[in-house]
Each structure stands twice: as structure tokens, then as C-alpha cells.
Design brief:
The structure is a single chain. The protein is 32% helix and 4% strand. The strands form 2 sheets. The protein has a 3-stranded antiparallel beta sheet with strand order 1-2-3. The termini are far apart. Among the domains are: 72-273 and 463-469, Orthogonal Bundle (Cytochrome Bc1 Complex, Chain D, domain 2), CATH 1.10.760; 312-439, Cytochrome Bc1 Complex, Chain D, domain 2 (Orthogonal Bundle). It has helices at 3-16, 35-53, 72-81, 194-199, 206-210, 220-232, 244-252, 259-271, 279-284, 293-303, 349-352, 382-390, 392-397, 413-429, 442-453, 463-466, and strands at 158-159, 165-170, 173-177, 327-329, 358-360. Helix 2 (35-53) packs parallel to helix 10 (293-303) and helix 12 packs across helix 15. The longest helix is centred in the N-terminal third of the chain and has 19 residues, at 35-53. The chain is mainly alpha-helical and 492 residues long.
Length: 492
């Protein structure tokens, strides 16, 4: 390659990235520049063009108020998040399915909430108690994969796979709609934000936190009132100790242990979980050494359209938060008990009555650590999930059932997944879905995986750093703190 070409490429980089570390690529002797270095220069140039074209800054938190984990409200929320007192039968807590050491999830395809053999064992190895009355042959009773609580404050439109907790415009008023109100109608009791609104519902779920023994005719508000009374009454007879008001007073004042405040504090704790300081962010901000060569190639495949030699991933995983916050049919294999008849899960259709099998586009921040993947955790490796997204038609046919734990029911998976795939194919035919099945080499898949790994904030794997969101091993305000352990008995 001639010196003129090298000089031109360096000049282009200096022109585009003046003042950034990108200019450092030209700090070499042009007579000794290797072809691989020149190739990397052109990759960086192309990526900068794609970054600019998609208006990326690397920071999805811009303009969003993120609370500090050290604030009194977030600290109170953390104590509540880890308390089994919010499980009606006192055998589960919010953290049972959303532990920070497990990337804000539980590392299971389908969660095991109530009636676990060891309520404090989280992640791989958590199983149902065979002696429990609702054992159901050991199959997971929770029908969907637990989404990560990490970066929950960055969602603008909705939470949950089907968007049942969502911001809506009701007449001239903007507010939050929840399952307590009809579709499109604001829930006046939802709380200050999406995270706080979501907290109001797992406590009523039989399989997540309520259990099966409490009054079967109880309404959601009945359960919330029951939990409020449990935490607010220092003499409650089902307690060894109860010091909750001492923790609520600095935040909410005297006599302030209400369910609304419980949800508000937990929402504050969840909203404090911001993990976006990843290599990709550093790259977008100017550090060209932040990504490996493989990750850079993967980024090109991610952001380029089908026509330009990519896989058009950015069509749905758009913006700095890597999601359009919309709903798409992607025919992820339908495993588990589902939420509808015949063990199916109709997704967003359950809320809108329109288009079965559509689920919310997940954000991709820290995605390498937030598996299993899919609305039901059908894929247990990131590579398998990537292959499915590239070519669902092929991936469904080749689906490997052996990747699933024995607690995931698959009796109707083939038939139900065929229906979801037929819906995707119909959507393509009618121009509803932009997705087109593609062929990918092993190297391309690997490059995409490497790029997705670059979206990982290193704090998550740093025990001291992530430990800020885990209370010290102890009893908590009520002697019901869940001190999570792994299958080997080690504290998470």
C-alpha cells in the first residue's frame, strides 16, 4: 500500500476525530505500517461513520436522574429488596430472581420463586422443594425469564416482556398504566416511576412471591395491605424482630411504613443500578484501543444494514440503550408452562389483542452476563441467541433441547414454536417485520458475540464494586434478610 493512501487515511482520521485518541492511530512510521494496521484504520473510519449516522454518544443515561446507591432511600430500598418479609410465605424476596451478583437476574431460564428447596440458594442449583404441595413434577412455575434490573431507570416506555407496566397518554395526561387498570388508563397509584410501579405486582403472583396458601380470594390490594401491616407493626406475631420504622423515618417520616413507600424505596434502589461504563462507551467517546479487532468487526456487522453487508441488528436494537422499546415477533422457542393455553405465551397480544408472540426488544447493555436469553430463557449461550436472531427459521429447526435444565417443561415446544415462526414469516410477507433470515459464518457470529461482550460494565464482575448493591451479611431489620449463596454454599 502506498504512503499516499496511508497518509490519506490518517488525514481522514485526524479530520474526523480531532482532539480524540483516534488520532493516535497515525502515530507511526508510514514506511513500516502493516497491512493489518491499515485495515484497522479503515474499520475505525467506517465505525465512526456508523456511530455518527446513528447519533450515538455511548451514554444512554444522558438527561436521566440516576439516584445514588448511597442515598438513604436507596439504602432502605436495598434492605426491602433483600427481605423475605415481602414474600407472603416468607420464602422469597425481590432478590430471589434479581441478584446483582447474577447481573440483576437469576441465571436461570425460568425463575423459581416460591417453594424453593433452599430459599437462599440463588442461580444454578436452585430447585423446587419436592415435598411442596405445588411441586408440579419439578417444572418451573414462573412462565418467563427474569429480566435484569440493571439500568432499569433508562427504560422510557415500558417494563416487562409484554410492556404491561407502561407510560401512556390518557386524554391530556401522561402517567403509568399497570395491570390494576384497563389498557391505556393511568393507574393513579402506580408511583413515581416505572420501577416503583413494577414492584407492586410480584408480591401478588402465586409463583413469584405470594405462594398458594394465603387467602385465595384476596385482591392485589389485600395482599399489599397484608404486607404493609406485617412491616408496620412492631409486635406482629410472625416476626422475631421488626425495626422497619427506624429505617423508614429518615426517609419518609414517622408512621410511614406503607406499601406505597415500600414500592417507592425499592424503585429507588433499582433505579440506582446504572452499569453503562463499558468498552463500547469508551470507544464511542474516542478511545480506539477500547475494542478488540474482533469486536470492531462485530460492531460493523451489527450497525450495517443487510444491503451493506451487515445483519441490520440496529434496526431494533437502536440508540445508546440498544433498544427501540417496541415489540417484535422473533419466534424464540416457546419453552416452559407459558402464560396462555396449551403452554403458549402470546406476549404483547395479552395486553393489546394484536399480534401474537411479540415481545419487547431487550436492551443489550451487559447482555453477555444477563442470560439465559429470550423471553423464556430458551437459549443458554449468547452464541446460540445470536444465531437465532440472525436466522430464526434455521435456529428453530436445529434447537438443542439439551441446553435446558430439567425444570423447564418442553412438552409443547415444537408445536407452539412453529406457530410463532409462522407469525414471523407472515409478518415478513406483509412488510410488518424488517427481519430477513441470513447466513453467517462462524467468524461473523464470533465477532458479533465479541462486540456484545464489549457492552459489559466491568463493575458487574468486580466483587467490591458490585458489592455496593448487596447488603452486608446479616439479619436485616426483621431477621428475614436473604443472604444469597450459590450451589457450593458460597455467599454471592
Amino acid at each position: 500500500m502506498s504512503k499516499n493512501i496511508i497518509a490519506l487515511s490518517c488525514a481522514g482520521i485526524l479530520f474526523l476525530f480531532s482532539g480524540c485518541q483516534w488520532a493516535d492511530v497515525c502515530d507511526h512510521n508510514t514506511t513500516t505500517t502493516s497491512s493489518s494496521t491499515v485495515e484497522e484504520i479503515f474499520v475505525d473510519l467506517e465505525l465512526r461513520s456508523l456511530i455518527d449516522a446513528h447519533n450515538l454518544t455511548g451514554d444512554p443515561s444522558t438527561g436521566i436522574d440516576i439516584p445514588s446507591i448511597n442515598s438513604p432511600k436507596a439504602q432502605l430500598g436495598m434492605q426491602l429488596f433483600y427481605s423475605k418479609a415481602l414474600g407472603v410465605e416468607k420464602d422469597s424476596a425481590c432478590v430471589s430472581c434479581h441478584h446483582p451478583a447474577l447481573a440483576g437476574g437469576d441465571a436461570l431460564s425460568l425463575s423459581i420463586g416460591v417453594e424453593a428447596l433452599d430459599p437462599d440458594l440463588l442461580g444454578v442449583g436452585r430447585i423446587h422443594d419436592p415435598s411442596a404441595p405445588h411441586y408440579n413434577n419439578g417444572y418451573a412455575l414462573v412462565p418467563r425469564n427474569a429480566p435484569t434490573t440493571f439500568n432499569v431507570a433508562l427504560w422510557k416506555r415500558a417494563l416487562a416482556w409484554d410492556g404491561r407496566i407502561e407510560n401512556v397518554l390518557d386524554g391530556n395526561k401522561v402517567g403509568i398504566r399497570t395491570p390494576d387498570t384497563p389498557f391505556g388508563i393511568i393507574d393513579e397509584n402506580a408511583g413515581a416511576n416505572l420501577a416503583a410501579a413494577q414492584v407492586r405486582f410480584p408480591v401478588f403472583s402465586d409463583v413469584e412471591m405470594k405462594g398458594f396458601d394465603y387467602n385465595a380470594s384476596a385482591t392485589r390490594d389485600d395482599v399489599r395491605q397484608h404486607l404493609q401491616e406485617r412491616l408496620s407493626d412492631p409486635s406482629a406475631n410472625d416476626y422475631i424482630d421488626n425495626e422497619w420504622q427506624k429505617f423508614f423515618t429518615p426517609v419518609y417520616g414517622e408512621n410511614s411504613v406503607t406499601f406505597d413507600n415500600i414500592a417507592d424505596a425499592i424503585g429507588e434502589y433499582e433505579n440506582s443500578q446504572l452499569f453503562i461504563d463499558n468498552p463500547w462507551k469508551k470507544y464511542v467517546e474516542g478511545n480506539i484501543t477500547a475494542l478488540s479487532a474482533s469486536a470492531k468487526r462485530g460492531a460493523k456487522l451489527f450497525f450495517n444494514s443487510y444491503q451493506d453487508g451487515g445483519f441490520s441488528c440496529v434496526t431494533c436494537h437502536s440508540g445508546d440503550f440498544f433498544t427501540d422499546e417496541s415489540y417484535h415477533v422473533m419466534a424464540v422457542p416457546q419453552v416452559g408452562l407459558g402464560k396462555d393455553e396449551n403452554e403458549e405465551d402470546f406476549g404483547r397480544y395479552r395486553e393489546t389483542g394484536d399480534m401474537k408472540y411479540a415481545f419487547r426488544t431487550p436492551n443489550l447493555m451487559n447482555v453477555a452476563l444477563t442470560g439465559p436469553w429470550g423471553h423464556d430463557g430458551a437459549y443458554t449461550t449468547l452464541e446460540a441467541m445470536v444465531r437465532h436472531m440472525i436466522n430464526p427459521d434455521k435456529s428453530v429447526i436445529e434447537y438443542d433441547f439439551s441446553q435446558l435444565d430439567a425444570n423447564v417443561k418442553t412438552t409443547n415446544t415444537l408445536a407452539n414454536t412453529a406457530k410463532a415462526l409462522a407469525q414471523l414469516q407472515a409478518n415478513r410477507a406483509f412488510g410488518i417485520s424488517p427481519h430477513q433470515p441470513q447466513e453467517a459464518t462462524d467468524e461473523e457470529v464470533n465477532d458479533l458475540v465479541e462486540f456484545l461482550k464489549s457492552l459489559t460494565d466491568p463493575c458487574i464482575t468486580d466483587k467490591e464494586c458490585i458489592g455496593q448493591w448487596i447488603p452486608a451479611n446479616g439479619h436485616g431489620p426483621d431477621c428475614l434478610q436473604l443472604n444469597a449463596v450459590d450451589a457450593n454454599g458460597n455467599l454471592l
